[in-house]
Design goal:
311 residues, alpha+beta, four-stranded antiparallel beta sheet, elongated
Amino acid sequence: MFEIVRYTPDKQAEWDAFVEVSKNGTFLLKRGYMDYHADRFTDCSLMFYFKEKLYALLPANTEGNTLYSHQGLTYGGLIMNETCSAANVLNLFFEMNSWLKEQGFQKVLYKPIPSIYSTLPSEEDLYALFRCQAILKACGISTAIDYSQLSKWHKDRHTALNRSKRNHVTVRQTQHIHAFWQILTSNLQTRHGVLPVHTQQEMELLMQRFPENIVLYEAIDTDEECIAGMLAYRSKNVLHSQYLAASLQGKKCGAIEAIMEAILQEKGYRYFDFGISTEEGGRYLNEGLIYQKEGFGGRGICYNTYEYTLS
């Protein structure tokens, strides 16, 4: 029923064009984003054709005898357009599993695209996972804000916002991230002993490739010095916080609250997504971090990972 083709670079234009018109794809699933770290993964992305037309995509990589819903991405489940039906997606999974077994794979780890990123209902793959007897392997809880019904902020967040106004903190959009990156790197090293997932050079490359999708909201003081920032990812209906950090002065001045006030005045989005507040596959919840996010009116949305064997 389906022709299954492994992605090769000569198919980039076809891949990207499908993502653009899909009901659940985002710019992270275009090859220009996926392939910036291609040297770290053995790509095994799949393209599914039905009646000689491209029907769906699966961003994936391989490691040993396991197919991963791409490890270099936060999410990367089946990318579908509005013509995909539940019955066809179920058959697609069954045929994909047979193909994978023929290729020597024994297991699949699958990260569906969270529902808030879809422009239409897109959970046909979740039903197929159930039929494949998949188990929930990991669950990261994020915090999302619905732009159509903004909730009240916690009192401490309002207090900090008022402090930012007294200190004349302003927020601007920029493509220049050097000053912010220094704050971000210092904070991560001091608190957790780690570096950002991306290097500054990698992020600058991605911003050059996707200038409409990646932007820095920068909080500045009266001397126009960067004291905080949010590097945001813009998709069709979600504004996502990829990196958020403030200097010591920025924390004292309520700079994060100033950024959030500006963010929530943005138009054209259905949701704002803070990103997950969990570690170790969801087994540890950073209660302080998620409390801060919930203080802006955010509530839970899950980033799940499923696993099944090819028996």
